[in-house]
Specification:
The complex is a heterodimer of chains A (141) and B (92). In chain A, 31% of the residues lie in helices and 36% in strands. Chain A is built from three helices and eight strands. In chain A, helix 2 runs antiparallel to helix 3. By secondary structure, chain B is α+β, with helices and mostly antiparallel strands. Chain B has one domain: Ubiquitin-like (UB roll), CATH 3.10.20.30. Helix content of chain B is 28%, strand content 24%. Chain B is built from four helices and five strands; from the N terminus they run E-H-E-H-H-E-E-H-E. A five-stranded mixed sheet of chain B has the order 2-1-5-3-4. The chains are: A alpha+beta (141), B alpha+beta (92). The interface between A and B is medium-sized, with 38 and 29 residues.
């Protein structure tokens, strides 16, 4: 399952479904809204493009790390502290592939998938700066 | 010809989201964005620097594919194109 959605997901069900033939390890990444003195977080995506990019990342991870299954669910909309933002479930024959595949996916998402977060505080709001400030303008230098 | 320009995150707040615009044949990607951005001084300054170049962090897409700033000057837009302009991503 690769999705961008407002609803939460049943992680237990994803784990059960990840137990495919040949599976020896499952790694779950669950990114949650951290209590950074905020009230809520609002997430926005360029949905059509972001979904295609998540599908591409999943396929690359499957091939590069020999994964049996990949699920990526990125939530959008308004979320409270402690709620799930991003759930990645990967299964593989062995732990090394599962860990590396999961790490590959989260780093690829952070590097380029068009999704943004805005923190809502008691005093107002602020956009979360991206970790990779790699705009198109860089090429002019 | 008609082109759809989409702004996201902070840029969406400044420009109000999607803009459908009529542009003349042969219009360039950069020229079109400059014209739209020119309608909002704060928005223009968020996207372009003092020399009129795209700010380093600005990301551009044409029909879902990233394009470099250097190519934005020469790249023509075509009828039905979807152009996206946004700040660095912060998902995950």
């Amino acid at each position: 399952m690769i999705a961008i959605q407002t609803a939460d997901v049943d992680i237990g069900q994803l784990i059960n479904e990840a137990k495919q033939r040949g599976t020896g390890a499952i790694v779950v990444f669950d990114g949650v809204v951290r209590d950074d003195d905020i009230r809520e977080m609002e997430l926005e995506a360029y949905e059509e493009v972001a979904l295609k990019e998540l599908e591409k990342i999943a396929e690359e991870a499957r091939t590069l790390h020999n994964l049996c299954s990949v699920d990526i669910i990125h939530r959008i909309g308004r979320l409270s502290v402690g709620e799930n933002i991003l759930i990645i479930v990967v299964s593989a024959g062995h732990r090394k592939e599962a860990y590396e595949g999961s790490r590959f996916i989260i780093e690829a998402i952070k590097a380029g998938v068009p999704i943004w977060k805005k923190e809502l505080t008691k005093d107002g709001s602020r956009w979360v700066p991206g970790e990779h400030a790699h705009g198109s303008g860089r090429s002019k230098r | 010809m008609t082109v759809k320009v989409r702004f996201f995150a902070r840029f969406r707040e400044l420009f109000g989201g999607d803009i459908i615009t009529d542009v003349p044949e042969g219009a360039s990607f950069m020229g079109m964005i400059k014209e739209i951005a020119g309608m909002n001084r704060e928005g223009y300054d968020a996207i372009f620097d003092d020399t009129g170049a795209f700010r380093e962090f600005v990301i551009l897409m044409k029909n879902g594919k990233r394009i470099d700033c250097a190519n934005a000057v020469q790249t023509p837009v075509a009828d039905g194109d979807e152009i996206a302009v946004f700040p660095p991503v912060a998902g995950g």
